[in-house]
Amino acid sequence: MKVVQRKIIHDAGQSLSLAHFPHLSYPLHCHEEYELVIVTAGTGREYIGHAVENYRAGDMTLIGPDIPHLHLCDSLTGKNGSEESACEILYFSPSLFPDNMDGIAEYRAIAAVLEKSRRGVRYSDPALTRQIRKQVQRLDKGQGIGRIRWLLALLDTLARSQETSLIASGPVRNGTALRRQETVDTVCRYLREHFRENLCLQAIAREACMNPSALCRHFRQRTGKTLFAFLAGIRIENACRLLLETRLSISAIAWETGFANLSHFNRQFKSLTGQTPGEYRKNIRSGVG
């Protein structure tokens, strides 16, 4: 069966949103967001990849990014007297989380449940569902960073629940998602190998075999950074190494790491490290930095 690629559209300036579905009719589909499904009415079957599990009102499922899934309502399959299914779905972007989340003690429980979401995590405790729905409603009414705090609190609650089961026996693989990740990996490798050069967007796009505009959108969605912010990070990382390990002048280091303009190098360096190159070299060698 063909998997439909959906694009979740959040309100302007937001990375998470709550949607209400009075009935479930989407075909097998996937998207780049995590989603928390809260079934508010009806019964049916939930497909996560090739795995299937029955659902009923009060159940919740956490589903990872790019996981093909489908909710097949009993009322649509001809079961007599079946109530039409309805649900609330919280969508949230992977870019909200740090890359090394499992290495940060405070995030570890959340990192673990997000990893499990690649298999579909089912919650069937009515008391937990009521608690989570209240948290979702507060999140939906919140503004700014408060919405992120509510999301993290919600995920922490889910992570600590003992009343869970995994729908799929192993992580669900999506060939399209894997190809998208391979594209990002190709671009990252290219930038690391060629950061000393005067790179342009067209050359990077040719390496990735993508349209430049599409590549920019795709890279930011997958990494949370623009192409050139990622490139600047690589260049400054290497500049820091040269400042520590060599006696090269600052202008020579700027040139060696791909900056043709010394003032631009100084601005980028201070923006990313909070210090000028000279201050960094002095502090790191004296043990202050």
Automatic annotation (TrEMBL):
The keyword DNA damage is assigned to this record: no
All residue ranges annotated as the HTH araC/xylS-type domain in the record: 185-283
GO molecular function: DNA-binding transcription factor activity; sequence-specific DNA binding
InterPro entries attached to this UniProt entry: AraC-bd (IPR003313), AraC_XylS_family_regulators (IPR050204), Homeodomain-like_sf (IPR009057), HTH-like (IPR037923), HTH_AraC (IPR018060), HTH_AraC-typ_CS (IPR018062), RmlC-like_jellyroll (IPR014710), Tscrpt_reg_AraC-type_HTH (IPR020449)
Domain of life: Bacteria
UniProt keywords, alphabetically: Activator, DNA-binding, Transcription, Transcription regulation
Keyword Transcription regulation: yes
PROSITE patterns referenced in this protein's UniProt entry, alphabetically: HTH_ARAC_FAMILY_1, HTH_ARAC_FAMILY_2
PANTHER family the record matches: HTH-TYPE TRANSCRIPTIONAL ACTIVATOR RHAS-RELATED (PTHR46796)
The name this protein goes by in its record: HTH araC/xylS-type domain-containing protein
Organism lineage string: Bacteria, Pseudomonadati, Pseudomonadota, Betaproteobacteria, Burkholderiales
